[in-house]
Amino acid sequence: MLSAAIQILAFALALLGVLGATVATLLPNWKVSVNVWSSVMTPISQMQGLWMDCVWYSSGVFSCTMKNSVLSLPAHLQTMRAAMVLSCMVASFGLCLASLGLKCTRWGGSHRAKGHTAIAAGGCFVLASLLCLVPASWFTNEVITAFLTTDLPDSSKYQPGGALCVTFISAGFLLAGGVIFCLSCPGKRSRRPDYASPTDPDRLMDEVKQEKGKVDQEQKLYSSPSKLPQKDIKDSYSLQEYV
């Protein structure tokens, strides 16, 4: 099992990934229009996100319009919304599992149970990273394809915004944290087990049962004369003949 310091590092990476994915989901600048000049002195920048569309004027006015109608949205935008929300939920659940699987915490069960919990948390983080990468890659492909193929004026063209960068970085953090937690698989027990800690009663009971079983086997082995070693039997016969 990995050391506690590496697990804490993985937990910090996953936490940054969850926060980044949540912020990126709410940001309105998933794609940003090329500068639109309605007049010589008034530039306008248009931004579109998963939940709202915003317009920023050079005078400092910033107005946003919520996308309240779900049925009027295209299918790919609805899919991206669902994927990002599901990614945040899965990553949050992974954080809860990771807090139980950390070696530096007192809750979460035995040493082996913590290892299995850490692996489950790593799986949640990897799944959340994939749920971030898929909509971000899809949205980026749609924006770049529309920018390069359509014969539209520059005022109607969009380029990838900062929210996509935040999404990709958050997916990388989640993937790194998930891989590290997945490597927390508990190893096989050695032939000479370690001493059980006072806070691990399950392991202590297992060792007591093993020792008791060994003592019972030895008592059964040496209690009946038929199971004595062959050399001892020969020595007893020779002693009787000598007497």
From TrEMBL:
Biased composition (Basic and acidic residues): 200-219
TM stretches of this protein: 82-105, 117-138, 158-183
Signal peptide coordinates: 1-20
Main subcellular location: other
A GO term for molecular function: structural molecule activity
Region named Disordered: 188-243
GO cellular component: bicellular tight junction; plasma membrane
Keyword tags: Cell junction, Cell membrane, Membrane, Signal, Tight junction, Transmembrane, Transmembrane helix
Keyword Phosphoprotein in record: no
Localisation: Cell junction, Tight junction; Cell membrane
Pfam family for this entry, one: PMP22_Claudin
Entry keyword annotation includes Coiled coil: no
Entry membrane topology: Multi-pass membrane protein
Family listed: Belongs to the claudin family.
Function text: Claudins function as major constituents of the tight junction complexes that regulate the permeability of epithelia.
Protein name: Claudin
Origin species: Acanthochromis polyacanthus
